[in-house]
Amino acid sequence: MKAMVSKALSVANYNFTPDDELLLDTNIWLFIYGPQKPEDARVMIYSQAFAKILAAHCKIYIDVLIVSEFINTYARIKWDVLGKPHKDFKKFRKCQDFKPLARDIADDVKRVLSHCTRIENKFNTLDVNELVAEYAAGDVDFNDQIIVAMCKEWRFKLLTHDSDFCNQGIPVVTANQRLLSS
């Protein structure tokens, strides 16, 4: 899969409409519902964008890959914020201290899912050999490759702050200056 140029659109200037079919990247869900610092400007930018998305009645889609990344990243952020109470993350997940965090994460996952239509990423139809060959070059994240493939297959716009989606041949809506200037 060769990278194709696709101009990123500024989330600040983007006019969301009911015709927009969006896939929100994990980092966006974390800015909206995750354990982020309130003073982080990205939290405000993407929360405002999300309010516009909801007001415009855009169609929002999600798959298990994004849900899994959200859960695992959220848990690791909380582990880190707590000062890594156990040296081993897996042991932390099994201790009593994790149980209330797991409930918080589950509640936020339910909030995310309440806005979305669940889809399958069609992994069984992807050219996995090509994806693995691209991954072997060491320049791409495998999960990001799956997200790009999903956006191409379903013709979604991707709302992301991840500069890895630069020039991937999909429409990207972002506040990331690196993506916007590419």
Which architecture does the CATH hierarchy give at level 2? Answer: 3-Layer(aba) Sandwich
From the helix content, strand content and strand pairing, which structural class follows?
alpha/beta
State the fourth-level CATH superfamily. 5'-nuclease
Query: Biggest β-sheet: count, sense, barrel?
Result: 6 strands, parallel
So what's the oligomer here?
Answer: single chain
Largest beta sheet: strand ordering: 1-6-5-2-3-4
Q: Total helix count?
A: 8
Q: What's the CATH class, please?
A: Alpha Beta
Range of strand content = 5-15%
Give me the Rg, rounded.
17 Å
Mean pLDDT: 92
List the helices and strands in order.
EEHHEHHHEHHEEH
Helix content: 40-55%
Taken from the alpha-carbon principal axes, the silhouette is: globular
CATH fold group: Rossmann fold
Residue stretches low in confidence (pLDDT < 50, at least 5 long) are none
Say how many strands there are: 6
Ends apart, CA distance between termini: 19 Å
Number of domains: 1
List the helices and strands and how they pair.
Blueprint: E1 8-10, E2 21-24, H1 26-33, H2 41-55, E3 59-62, H3 64-81, H4 89-94, H5 98-113, E4 117-118, H6 128-136, H7 142-154, E5 157-159, E6 172-174, H8 177-181
Parallel strand pairs: 1-6, 2-3, 2-5, 3-4, 5-6
Helix pairs in contact: 1-3, 3-5
Report on the architecture of this protein:
- The chain is α/β, with parallel strands linked by helices.
- The chain has a single domain (8-181), classed as Rossmann fold (3-Layer(aba) Sandwich).
- The chain has 8 helices and 6 strands.
- It has helices at 26-33, 41-55, 64-81, 89-94, 98-113, 128-136, 142-154, 177-181, and strands spanning 8-10, 21-24, 59-62, 117-118, 157-159, 172-174.
- Strands 1-6-5-2-3-4 form a 6-stranded parallel β-sheet.
- Helix 3 runs antiparallel to helix 5.
- The longest helix is centred in the middle third of the chain and has 18 residues, at 64-81.
- The relative contact order is 0.22.
- The mean pLDDT is 92.
